[in-house]
Amino acid sequence: MASISAGFWRSTFNLSRHFPSSLISSRPSFSRARFSRSSAAMDSGDDLRSKFMEFPYVSGSHRALMVDILSTVETRLGSSLESCTLPPDVQQFENSTGSARGSLHLRSGLPSSQIDFVLGGWIHCELPSGEALNITTLSAYLKPSTDAPHFLLDLIQIGPTSLVLILDLTPRKDLILYPDYLKKYYEDTNLDRHRVHIHGLPEAKPYHSPSLYVRAVLSPTAILVSVGAERSVEDVIRDHVWPVAREVLDFWIGSCLCAVGNVGAKERDYLARRDGIIKRTTVEVDLGSSFPRLFGQEVADRVLGVLSGYYGK
Amino acid sequence: MASISAGFWRSTFNLSRHFPSSLISSRPSFSRARFSRSSAAMDSGDDLRSKFMEFPYVSGSHRALMVDILSTVETRLGSSLESCTLPPDVQQFENSTGSARGSLHLRSGLPSSQIDFVLGGWIHCELPSGEALNITTLSAYLKPSTDAPHFLLDLIQIGPTSLVLILDLTPRKDLILYPDYLKKYYEDTNLDRHRVHIHGLPEAKPYHSPSLYVRAVLSPTAILVSVGAERSVEDVIRDHVWPVAREVLDFWIGSCLCAVGNVGAKERDYLARRDGIIKRTTVEVDLGSSFPRLFGQEVADRVLGVLSGYYGK
User: Fold this and answer.
1) pTM of whole model > 0.90?
2) CA B297 to CA B309: how far, in whole Å?
3) Is the ipTM beyond the 0.90 threshold?
4) Contacts of B173 (CB under 8 A, 6+ apart)
5) Chain A residues lying within 8 Å of B179, measured CB to CB
6) Which residue among B182, B212, B274 sits closest to A182, beta carbon to beta carbon?
7) Using the beta-carbon criterion (under 8 Å), do A177 and B278 form an inter-chain contact?
């Protein structure tokens, strides 16, 4: 694999958790030409990373949150990660009409690291209604050498007034067969306080994924809400989602990732088998159902084919 | 074990699913003396069953629903069940002041049946606020000879205007490691339509159990709501909860219980191990935390000690 990138997901902002809104109101200019396949193929790895980190279609606190989260991962975990080795036309892609665009950045963990890989991404799509669909995501998968949960953050925004938030530390084990696991990572850590906080906001309504698999894979402390109505999505992300996402990420990095478990061979096999199902299902069912509709079959096949090498291995 | 009771949970009403409310408005007179330990010890099995089936502290559609559900189980499954062998002072019990009372009726499956046991119960408690807490429940556990889900129905009513409803077919397997199980019992059956219906009622709000274990053990189609406010609990139970509970019970009896799976030895061991944890946790954590507070340690020890023989075996 390639050498470690020194600047993966490097933020052009130096954002604290509680930032003045003036710092995050800027929206970088965005040139569609950057997304053509030939253009992407000529870009260097650093160029592609910078373009990914622009999150060009979201602004304000949504953009600042993602930059902050990804920068934090880079700062604290970067030395454990390879550089992104996705082909340029998988790091940036669009459909034939240019109405849907996406960018992915994937960094595998070093052989000595407990991180399997970290994937950041964004998708922008102009909906027939005239509104914009913007999805930003960070997911981090660990190796079977540790049983600490995976990390998942998804923000799905439709227009300026509607947001779906999914934030979870995804369990690696069946919480019924392994009650000690439930206790260690979810009960003793009081992770549920974040869910209580976000679900208790007057602007938040519980969100039920239409996928029973998604509901089953998440932890009992998962935050799944749709946000809208009374206050703006901008305010809710800034005042509530951002601090909570950072706290959960910090907990995940500090408490989960650094705590090396004594995982025996049998347990490793179990984790590898369960993780394998989770990752394959994510590509086949989750992405596999939406990517062809958004980007057409050819682009979807190209992107998902490459991702399968990481998710399906 | 004893012979099969011919009249377990026999209803004194012949209730259809859509009943005239005049049929269910009667509330039987209730004598406290029936609950004294010495009195209970002298009652015959039929007497105790009849008293259990009175559900003396709930009325209207709540009572009628429970009578209907339990009568349905008796009619369709009674020939597969032993008679209730709980000691009389576990079939009926109360605390020292008489402010909390309960009744349990447990029937084990015959050796030839796939039913492990069926437990019906009710608890009544006068709260310090002056309101009455009434819990009615039916849970049915299956043997490891089938992998069909368990059945769970809980109605927790505080006063006339507040209800918590839990209705679920509880999975026997980890839904991530066994995606075919998720498909067979939850996706292909469209069980989620009932959750969508109940959760969509304007009077219903999602209910999150404070227990992470309870959240984890339930299926992704579980109905967990608190009901109150706009319409009366009475109307919501009659028009929505009752029909849905009957449909889920009928599905469980018809589709799950009657479909004998080819469960191999290894799978049986897995099911037995997972079921064992579920049942032991129910007694130790769920009932074990609430019974001493409601009934005092002596009564709790007596009742839970007997239940442990069924749940912990």
Assistant:
1) no
2) 18
3) no
4) B147, B181, B270, B271, B274
5) 213, 277, 281
6) B212
7) no
